[in-house]
Amino acid sequence: MRHGRWRFLLAALVPALVLHVVLVFSPYAQAFYLSLTDWTGVAGEANFVGVDNFVRLGDDSLFLDAVRNNAVMLVVVPIATIGLALFLASMLNGRRPLPGASAYQIVYFFPQMLSLVIIAVLWGFVYNPNTGLLNSGLRAIGLDGLARSWLAEPSLALPSVMAVVVWSSVGFYVVLFSAAIGAIPKELFEAAVLDGAGRWATFRRVTLPLVAESVQVAFVYLGIAALDGFVLVQVMSVGPGGPDGTTEVVGLSLYRTAFTYGKFGYATAMGVALFFAALTLAVLALRWRRDEVTA
């Protein structure tokens, strides 16, 4: 019986492991190798250069601009999205839920039904300085002085892109946090009411600690999205990546380096650096939560 069980387990696991190695680990290994070469995208032309590509990254001003912009997004996007989603979810599902909460969730979730390309095109129209909805609305209410070229001014371009990232993401996390809040026993909210706790105290003392795991997952996913940002920047920004590199992100630098300049080895090094940045973010976020639980 014991030998038969092991044969069954091996027969079930080995094909899946082989597929995982071929379809997941093999491309990763190939990418790591190519990042150590000067491959130009032509089969057979790849000379080993060691860590030279990674050394060059430290002297590449455009790549450093991209890293800086991704770092700003890594701070702003998760905090803004999680904060707004927690506020909306707590208002819809807290101790005194708003009427029609399910309808609100559907409305908030609607952007998830659209692809990022469509979202970028739509918001490109919204930000249009002449006929866009944003400037037209400001002029309609007499705030002409606030009308701007949102994607063409260096100080406004990146915040404008980040606003779209938050808008397109917040609905999903409203639903996620709503499910987490809905799983909290109602007796805890009732006890908070009996103790005289207000909305803010109830949220801080009851809701937030009990949805912390969902917040942690949201931070990891939003952090990875902030380290990407390629699609929105590619479609919406001037250049793209402009003006003056203010919306340059690592994904865009990678794409341009590979498909415009033909430096696939160097571009792969950017991708490997981005991979380790995302991996580090996920490990730190998961470790922070584990340390907090064991403290």
From TrEMBL:
The chain crosses the membrane at residues 71-94, 106-126, 161-185, 206-227, 264-286. CDD domains: TM_PBP2. One of its GO terms (biological process) is transmembrane transport. Gene3D superfamilies: MetI-like. Residues 67-285 form the ABC transmembrane type-1 domain. Its main location: membrane. The keyword Transferase does not apply. Pfam families: BPD_transp_1. Keywords: Cell membrane, Membrane, Transmembrane, Transmembrane helix, Transport. It is found in: Cell membrane. GO terms for cellular component: plasma membrane. It is a multi-pass membrane protein. Belongs to the binding-protein-dependent transport system permease family. This is N-acetylglucosamine transport system permease protein. It comes from Actinoplanes italicus.
